[in-house]
Amino acid sequence: MPLIEKAYAKLHKRYEALNGGKMGEGMVDLSGGVSEKYNLSAPETKELLENGVFWKMIKNYLKQGFLVGCACSKKSDDGKKIDEPGPNGISPNHAYGLLRMEDVQASDLL
């Protein structure tokens, strides 16, 4: 991974250019594939979450070898990004790669 990171930084002229950006764009750059984004707050995604289809879809993507990542955006009232981890240990405005999924109930995650 450090060698890939170094090559990617060289492509973008400096390491500082890797800070921020969009996860989907980075995955497309590294894989040559396409990306798809799901907003968990969107009504159409909420329905998929509630009936369990979303989690089956993501698990299937992982089984097929797709790159899967997740992130949550959070800003303070004055519009600045928040860096403090939330109560579940997830840091907002940070990208995470998903490597595997355990069978859990959607209600366990909320």
> How big a fraction of the residues is strand?
5-15%
Shape, please?
globular
The run of helices and strands is HHHHEEH
Tell me the quaternary state.
single chain
Poorly predicted ranges (pLDDT <50, ≥5 residues)? Answer: none
Biggest sheet, spatial arrangement of strands:
1-2
Arithmetic mean pLDDT? 84
| Measured distance between first and last alpha carbons | 32 Å
Q: Major β-sheet, in short?
A: 2 strands, antiparallel
DSSP helix fraction: 25-40%
- In total, the number of strands is 2
Number of domains: 2
Find the structural class using helix and strand composition: mainly alpha
Rg, rounded, reads 16 Å
Plain-language structure description:
Helices cover 38% and strands 5% of the residues. A two-stranded antiparallel sheet has the order 1-2. The chain has 2 domains: 1-35, no CATH class; 37-110, no CATH class. The protein is built from 5 helices and 2 strands, in the order ααααββα. It has helices spanning 2-11, 23-31, 43-50, 53-63, 106-109, and strands at 68-70, 96-98. The protein is mainly α and 110 residues long. The radius of gyration is 16 Å and the shape is globular. The longest helix is centred in the middle third of the chain and has 11 residues, at 53-63.
Strand and helix map with partners:
Blueprint: H1 2-11, H2 23-31, H3 43-50, H4 53-63, E1 68-70, E2 96-98, H5 106-109
Antiparallel strand pairs: 1-2
Compose a concise summary of this entry.
The protein has 5 helices and 2 strands, in the order ααααββα.
Keywords, separated by commas or semicolons:
110 residues; mainly alpha; 5 helices
